[in-house]
Amino acid sequence: GKTALFLDDKGQVVKTLELGKGDGEGKCAVLKDKLYLAYRRYPIDKPRTNIVISTLIYLDKSEYPGNTSLYVIDKDLTVLKSLYLPLPATALAADSSHIYLAGAYVSNGTLYWWIERRDENLTLLKATTIQPKIRDYEHYWPAYPEPKLIHINNITGKIWVPGFYTSFFGALFPYTYIEILNVTTLDPLNET
C-alpha cells in the first residue's frame, strides 16, 4: 500500500501512516494544533491506461476517479479520527476555526465542483455543489478543470477556489478558472 511519511527538520522519518492500496495524492492543512490530511485514492480496479495530463487523471469522459480519506492527526502524529468521502478531494485549506474541501466530478457529461466546510471534528457544517461557468469545457476533455487550491479571506468574506485545465489544439494550453464564494453561505459570487 501507499504510505505517508512525516519528516523532521533534518529530513529524517519520524512516523509513517498507511494510506491503503493504489495510487493517490494527499493535501494537508493545519487547524489549531491538528494536521488534516485529505488523501485522494485513484481506483485500483481500473486498467492502468489512464490519460495523464499534469496532475489530472481521468478514466473516461463519464467518470471522475477516486475517493478521499480525511484524517485528523495530532502533534504526536497519532490519527485521532478518519472519515471516508465518496468523492475525490483535490483541494484542502483551513482558517482559524474550519477546514474547507473542494473537488470535482462529472455526472451525465456535466461537470460539477463541490465545496464544503467542516469543523475541527470533521462535522459537515455547509456544503454546496456548483456547475462552473466554463465555456465549452467539454471540448477540452480529458482535461476537465478541477479545484486545486482554496484561499479563505474572512476579512472580505470570500473564498477563492482556482482550478486548472488544459486545452488540445495542436499543443497544450493551460487555462485557469476561479470560482469565488461567500465565506458564510458558500454561494457563488462570480459575475461571469
Number of helices: 0
Strand order of the largest sheet: 3-4-7-8
Total E-strand runs:
16
Principal-axes geometry comes out as globular
Question: Could you estimate the helical fraction of the residues in percent?
Answer: under 10%
Computed Rg: 17 Å
N-to-C CA distance: 43 Å
Q: Please report which band the strand proportion falls in: under 5%, 5-15%, 15-25%, 25-35%, 35-45% or over 45%.
A: over 45%
Overall mean pLDDT: 77
Low-confidence stretches: 46-64
The main sheet comes to:
4 strands, antiparallel
Specify the oligomeric state. single chain
Structural class: mainly beta
Question: Can you walk through the features of this model?
Answer:
The chain has strands at residues 2-7, 13-20, 24-31, 34-41, 51-53, 56-58, 67-73, 79-85, 89-94, 99-107, 110-118, 124-130, 146-147, 151-153, 158-168, 172-182. The protein has no helices and 16 strands. With 192 residues, the chain is mainly β. Strand 15 and strand 16 (172-182) form a beta hairpin.
Task: Describe the structure concisely for a colleague.
With 192 residues, the chain is mainly β. It has no helices and 16 strands.
